[in-house]
Amino acid sequence: MIRLMEKTFAFRLSQLAFSCCLLFIFLSPAVYADSDTEQQIKVSFIYNFAKFVTWPNLSNANAPLLICVSGSQPLSASISLLQGKKVGSHTIQVNALGKNKTMTECNMLFVSESEMPQLQEILAPLAGQPVLTVSTIAGFTQAGGMIGMKELDNRLRFDINLIAAKKANVSIASQLLQLADEVIQ
Prior knowledge:
The strands form two sheets. The protein has an eight-stranded mixed β-sheet with strand order 3-4-2-5-6-7-8-10. By secondary structure, it is α/β, with parallel strands linked by helices. The protein is globular, with a radius of gyration of 17 Å. It has helices at 2-27, 35-51, 74-78, 119-123, 162-167, 174-179, and strands at residues 53-54, 65-70, 86-87, 90-96, 108-111, 132-135, 147-152, 155-161, 171-172, 182-184. The chain is built from six helices and ten strands; from the N terminus they run ααββαβββαβββαβαβ. The longest helix is centred in the first third of the chain and has 26 residues, at 2-27. The termini are far apart. Helices cover 35% and strands 23% of the residues.
């Protein structure tokens, strides 16, 4: 009985430490000295989002994690810094989408602010597809995107549309959901 209590306490303590690490990663003050620093922070958020998402089409441990970028803005180019990094056993591949590329092959799609006029045309074909959609477009999650990043009180924050994620069979870890400003359920 005492051993069980010790194990439960140790487990809860490890959960608390893990949650504290997540809070440090996602809620650290972001006073942007320059746009490069801002872009690096946003890219690190995107990388960390990938760590807390499970895709049904990534059951093969050797399969690459394909992050696609639609449109152009400074952040689009910065995302290429993730090329070759690992998320679990998956190596990240970053692809810029051209006019004829299919978005359904992506595991994650970053939608640049330049794509705002075409947002519905981008999101509609992805409905029900296991593609995590991420953007800095204002109101992205309300429009049907899954994770919308935003600046609030000089900090980078994010909202999550859990309804869209569930429809796409993309599983978002509860630790990430707890850190979101708003979760649409």
